[in-house]
Automatic annotation (TrEMBL):
The lineage of its organism: Bacteria, Bacillati, Actinomycetota, Actinomycetes, Kitasatosporales. The chain crosses the membrane at residues 80-101, 121-137. It is a multi-pass membrane protein. Keywords: Membrane, Transmembrane, Transmembrane helix. Pfam families: DoxX (PF07681). It is found in: Membrane. It comes from the Bacteria. This is DoxX family membrane protein. The keyword Cell membrane does not apply.
Amino acid sequence: MFSDALSRYRPHSTTVLRVSVGLVFIWFGLMKFVPEASPAQDVATRTMDVLSFGLVPAEATRPLLALFETAIGVGLLTGVLLRLALAAFFVHMAGVFSALLILPGEMWNGPMATPTLEGQYVIKNIVLIAACLAVAADERRR
């Protein structure tokens, strides 16, 4: 019985991954449209400041990230311009993970380099990357 359900689910598993990550990105993106609603906004703003060499004003960073994340989420959710959404996703993840190097004092605790809560917030994105790699592989196969 359980294996029958899994067999019926298998053809839809990549779509479920794509839609799930899309919903997460829409949710996190929408939160960044509201000041102080996202627990990641301060780290994201400081990371963007370093990555843009200070060229993107701090007050523009949050709404730009909100728009970027929401657009990625919509692309993943709908499948419209999926390859573009996936490319944007992976570029965004490179920026997100750069915080581990750019802001080491905020990302890591003590001599054993255990992640802080902010570091854990970044590291959990490995799961989203794995999901989008599966989606990208499936899209490429088509």
